[in-house]
Amino acid sequence: MAVSTNPASQSSRSRRVEFIDLLRGWAVIVMIETHVSNATLTEPITSSWLFQYIKFLNGLVAPSFLFASGLAYAITTRRKLNDYLSFGPLLTKQFGRLFFVLIIGYVLHLPKFNFNQLLHETTSQEWLVFYQADVLHCIAVSLLFMQAVLLVLKSERRLYLTLTVIAVGVLFVTPLMWGPDVGAVFPAPIAAYVNGLDHSLFPIFPWSAFLFAGAIVGYYYLHAKESVGPGAGNEERFMKSLSWFALSIIIVAPIIEPFAARTYPTYDYWRFSPSFVLLRLGIVLLLCVGMFFYEKRRGVSPRSVVTLIGRESLIVYVVHLLLIYGDFGTFNFTEYVNKSFGYVEAVVTTLVLFGLMYALALVWSRIKRGSPRLKRVLNFATLAIVLGVFFFGPGE
Fold first, then answer.
1. Quick one: which of 316, 320, 347 has its CA closest to 333?
2. Which is it for strands 327-328 and 331-332: parallel, antiparallel or unpaired?
3. CB proximity list for 373: less than 8 A, separation 6 or greater
4. Taking the CB of residue 324, how many other CB atoms lie within 10 A of it?
5. Which of 15, 86, 246, 388 keeps 20 to 30 A from 335, CA to CA?
6. Which range is least confidently modeled, 35-39, 285-289, 377-381?
7. What is the C-alpha separation between 42 and 222, in angstroms, rounded?
8. 330: exposed, middle or buried (C-beta count within 10 Å: 0-12, 13-18, 19+)?
9. Cα–Cα distance between 110 and 132 in angstroms, integer?
10. Mean local confidence (pLDDT), 40-59
C-alpha cells in the first residue's frame, strides 16, 4: 500500500504507531464476527468440530485487544511522561478518560435503561450481571492501576519492572483466585473483578496479564527505537527477538500444563490456566510482530480501513454491541434471530454490520479532525439524549 507523501499528512500521522492500530483494528473486526456468530448461529453449528477451531481463533480477539491497549498506553505515556509524574491538568484529564471508559462499561450492562425501572424493578440477579467485569472494565481498571503506580514510583523504568513482576504473579496466581467464592467475602462490585464465578467474562485474573504484557513490550520497543550509538534504530532487531520469545512461550505452554493441572486445587484449562494464557500470549506476540513488519515493509495507507477501525475502536465497540444485543423498544436483534442463522446468514450480517461500523468510524474521525466546537456540541447532544431517555423515557 502506498504511503502518503504529503508532509502535513505525514506530520499528523507520525505520532501514531501504525502497527498498534493494525493489531487493534483486526481485533475489532474479528470481534464483530465473533459477537455476530455467538448471537446468531444455531446450536448444531456452534457444537460442530469446525466451529471449535473458529472459536479458538475468535478467542484471540480479547487478548489482542487488551495487548494493543497496553502497547498504546506505553507509547502515549512516553510522550506525556513528565505530565504524568505529578498531579496536573493532563494527568487529571487522563484519569477522567479512563473513568469515562469504565462508566461506559457499566452503562452497557444496565439491566434496564430507565431510572425508575432500574430503581424499583431490578432483581438481585440482574444487579449481579450489571456488576460483571467485561473487557472495558478490565482495560479501564488495569490502566488506572498502572497510572497510579507510575504516579507513586515516579519512574517509567520502575513502573515496567514492577509490572513485569505483577504480570507473572497474575499469570500463576490466577487459578488460586478462581477457587474461593469471593462474592461471599467482598461486595459484588469488587468480587466481579477477581474471578468469573459471578458472571464476569474478563476479570483482572488472568486478563490484565495481556494488557500488562502489551505495556511492557511497548516500553522495550520504545527503548530499542530511541536508542543511540551502535544500536541505533534496532527496533527491528527487538521485534525479531520478540518473535523468538513468543515461539519459546508457545512451546513452554503445553510443557507446564501437566504440572499446573496437578499443582492447583482448582483448575480449568480453557478459562484460566497459566498454560493457555501463555499459549494465547505467544500467538498475540507473533501477531504484533507480523503487524510491525507489515508496516515496515509495505507501509500503511492513510485510507486504511483496518487502522481507521483501530483508531476509533471505542465507539465501534460500543455501537456494534448495542446493535447486536441492545433493546430498541420492543425489538432486540438477538432475541429476534433466536440463534437460527447458518454460516451464510451470519457472514452477510457480519459484512453489513462491519460496513455500518466503518461508516461510523469514518464520520466520527472526520468530526474529530474538524471543528472542535462541532465535536463538543455532538458530545453534549448525545449525552443529553442518553440522560433524557434514561430519566424520562417510557422504559420497557
1. 320
2. antiparallel
3. none
4. 19
5. 388
6. 377-381
7. 46
8. exposed
9. 11
10. 96
What is the Cα–Cα distance from 319 to 356, expressed in whole angstroms?
10
Which of 103, 35, 102, 22 lies closest to 68, judged by CA?
Answer: 22
Residues counted in the chain: 396
pLDDT at residue number 14: 43
Closest CA to 142 of 220, 62, 82: 62
C-alpha of 373 from chain center: 29
pTM over 0.85: yes
Q: What does the alpha-carbon distance between residue 387 and residue 15 come to, in Å, rounded to a whole number? A: 35
pLDDT at 281: 98
Q: Cα 307–77–62 angle (5° rounding)?
A: 45
152: which 3 cell numbers?
507513586
How many helices (H) and strands (E) in the chain? 21, 2
Q: Where are the domains of the chain?
A: 1-59+303-396, 73-298
Strand partners, 332: 327
Q: Name the residue type at position 239.
A: M
Contact 112, 122 (CB under 8 A): yes
Band (pLDDT 50/70/90 cuts) for residue 15 is low
pLDDT of residue 386: 85
CB-based burial label for 88 (10 Å; 0-12, 13-18, 19+): exposed
> What 3-state DSSP class applies to 286?
helix
CA distance 281 to 247: 10
- What's the CA gap between 22 and 364, in Å, rounded? 18
